[in-house]
């Protein structure tokens, strides 16, 4: 006989959880498609997708079927043995990308950790230890491990964790001249997000990515593209790099890869992969059969032409809706991003108030995100319907109307 479930609430979080998060007061208990419901039965439209993770919405039937089928077969082996779902997923990812080799992990941080280690190992084995510099960019975000936050270009994530790993140089994003000056014989890798997600939903310019590719080739260093957030259909092609005409040496991806199951991947070429020889890196859970079975179902659904067509159509619909809200209330200063990874920067008079928009949105039944204090981020399901986008925008409009009204009243 099963024990009864213990009653829990948002208050329970403060009692039992480490206080490194500050979750909203609502506690969701169920989701279906692009909607979810909290403990009180209230419904919300999901424009956040667990930070761009549930790319096929909540409880997608094909993912539920894959999970259920594999759960009745085999959950875990470790990498002492390989397994069929992991091999099938790796093969599918190589079919969809430039890569010929795959390493599986559990999170974007872990995938990036593997990429950074591989870059240094590759350079060391070919040129010696002096070629170890990693070039990254201000406002970048590459994860929360010590190495990943050090490579990321946001000081707020490294304060108090010093001393940090060395050999990392940060440059202004999209600055071709600064990058050209910095890359040298000491550089082992240049690491770029095609769209800086946590850094404000800021796309790389084509000129910047092409310059990075050319410089890496010239100086025999590796171009790493962090597609943890931009990959898996989020930007309108399976990987965002496809839209730039630039091919990386290493690519990392996670978030939408498993549709909500923790799984990540580092993709690379045969020539680079040889540097990560037996025993040089590993993961106990990485590539476990349960996660990779669900991820394969997600990848196959995302890669469908109709899914990519929906990303582009709904992305345009959301852009138009956000611009209309901006015109009505003056809260936003336009919209930027790619596909269904969109950012609405706050206007000059609303700087620092992105979180206020998110909170007001929840009051009106739509869940959005921030990308820093000055940008509202919208990352709905890749298969969200036109009617749900329209309704979500209506609720966001109501939230902005509430804020604008309160602002006028306060200044009257």
UniProtKB/TrEMBL annotation:
Statement: the UniProt record of this protein carries the keyword Ligase: no
Binding site for pyridoxal 5'-phosphate: 141, 226-229, 284
The keyword RNA-binding appears for this protein: no
InterPro entries: Ac/SucOrn_transaminase_bac (IPR017652), AcOrn/SuccOrn_fam (IPR004636), Aminotrans_3 (IPR005814), Aminotrans_3_PPA_site (IPR049704), Class-III_PLP-dep_AT (IPR050103), PyrdxlP-dep_Trfase (IPR015424), PyrdxlP-dep_Trfase_major (IPR015421), PyrdxlP-dep_Trfase_small (IPR015422)
Residues that bear N6-(pyridoxal phosphate)lysine: 255
Subunit structure: Homodimer.
Name of protein: Acetylornithine aminotransferase
Species of provenance: Panacagrimonas perspica
């Amino acid at each position: 006989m099963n024990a009864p479930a213990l009653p829990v609430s948002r208050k329970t979080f403060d009692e039992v959880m480490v206080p490194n998060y500050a979750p909203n007061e609502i506690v969701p208990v169920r989701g279906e498609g692009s909607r979810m419901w909290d403990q009180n039965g209230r419904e919300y439209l999901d424009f956040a997708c667990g930070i761009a993770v549930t790319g096929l919405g909540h409880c997608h039937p094909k993912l539920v079927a894959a999970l259920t089928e594999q759960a009745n077969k085999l959950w875990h082996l470790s990498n002492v043995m390989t397994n069929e779902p992991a091999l099938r997923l790796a093969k599918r990812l190589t079919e969809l990308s430039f890569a010929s080799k795959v390493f599986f992990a559990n999170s974007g941080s872990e995938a990036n950790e593997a990429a950074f280690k591989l870059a240094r190992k590759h350079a060391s084995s070919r040129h010696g230890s002096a070629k170890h510099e990693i070039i990254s960019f201000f406002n970048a975000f590459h994860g929360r491990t010590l190495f990943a936050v050090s490579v990321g270009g946001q000081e707020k994530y490294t304060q108090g964790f010093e001393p940090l790993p060395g050999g990392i140089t940060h440059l202004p994003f999209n600055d071709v001249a600064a990058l050209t000056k910095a890359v040298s014989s000491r550089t082992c890798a240049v690491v770029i997000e095609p769209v800086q997600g946590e850094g404000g939903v800021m796309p790389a310019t084509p000129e910047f990515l092409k310059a990075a590719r050319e410089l890496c080739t010239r100086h025999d260093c590796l171009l790493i593209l962090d597609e943890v957030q931009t990959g898996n259909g989020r930007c309108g092609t399976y990987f965002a790099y496809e839209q730039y005409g630039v091919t990386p040496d290493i690519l990392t991806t996670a978030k939408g890869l498993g549709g909500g199951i923790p799984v990540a991947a580092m993709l690379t070429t045969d020539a680079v992969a040889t540097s990560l020889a037996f025993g040089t890196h590993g993961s106990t859970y990485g590539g476990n059969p349960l996660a990779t079975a669900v991820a394969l179902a997600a990848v196959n659904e995302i890669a469908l032409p109709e899914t990519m067509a929906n990303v582009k159509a709904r992305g345009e619909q959301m852009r138009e809706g956000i611009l209309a809200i901006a015109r009505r209330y003056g809260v936003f200063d336009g919209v930027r991003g790619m596909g269904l990874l969109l950012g609405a920067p706050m206007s000059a008079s609303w700087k620092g108030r992105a979180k206020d928009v998110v909170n007001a949105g929840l009051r009106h039944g739509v869940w959005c995100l921030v990308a820093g204090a000055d940008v509202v981020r919208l990352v709905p399901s890749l298969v969200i319907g036109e009617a749900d986008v329209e309704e979500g925008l209506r609720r966001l409009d109501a939230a902005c109307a509430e804020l604008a009204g309160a602002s006028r009243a306060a200044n009257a």
